[in-house]
Design a protein that fits this description.
By secondary structure, the protein is mainly β. The chain has 1 helix and 8 strands.
């Protein structure tokens, strides 16, 4: 609960500080995407290692070949099966990345990204107040394809590896990936 309040406050302050900048700049963009997350190495007792997830990002265009981006990703919820009480795992990430772009034509380009992912995982048990939380920082790597529809609007397809997640200091690690489809709007 405390983490949700902190994230809400950070989001509110960030929005209040950046909105005036965005109104006067052609170099900023926002990006929203949905896709399939992949929790790797969770074991045999999960209902779905590939829940739906989503991402929001804010970027700055340095030039035609380089961007920087910060954002938030939610990986969806994974539930246990065959274990009582049932457990739910949720992971969220705040990230910062540099993006290198390789234009193929005026409309199409490839891109790669690298940065830091601040992964926060929460494991809770149904019917109890037991929760495990862990935040770790990992290397973020990704690649994708962009199609520019107009000067302001583009579609993206990308794969991003967010590193590993954990739910406690002595727990096993799991890997976090996401394949997503998104829209990017340039201001």
């Amino acid at each position: 609960m405390f983490v949700k309040k902190i994230i809400s406050i950070i989001t509110l302050v960030f929005t209040a500080l950046t909105t005036p900048l965005l109104a006067h700049s052609d170099d900023f963009y926002i990006k929203a995407s949905i896709g399939r997350s992949h929790y790797i190495d969770l074991g045999d007792h999960v209902d779905n290692e590939n829940p739906n997830g989503g991402s929001l990002g804010l970027g700055y265009i340095i030039n035609k070949n380089w961007d920087v981006e910060i954002g938030y990703t939610h990986f969806g919820t994974v539930n246990s099966i065959g274990i009582s009480p049932q457990k739910s795992l949720k992971t969220q990430t705040i990230y910062a990345a540099g993006i290198g772009k390789l234009p193929i034509t005026e409309a199409f380009s490839l891109f790669g990204k690298a940065g830091a992912a601040f992964n926060y995982s929460n494991l809770s048990s149904e019917g109890t107040s037991i929760e495990y939380n862990k935040a770790i920082t990992e290397l973020l790597l990704g690649a994708g394809f962009s199609c520019q529809f107009s000067k302001k609007l583009a579609a993206t397809i990308d794969y991003t590896h967010y590193g590993k997640g954990k739910v406690a200091n002595n727990s096993a690690e799991f890997k976090l990936d996401q394949i997503s489809f998104g829209l990017k709007y340039n201001f």
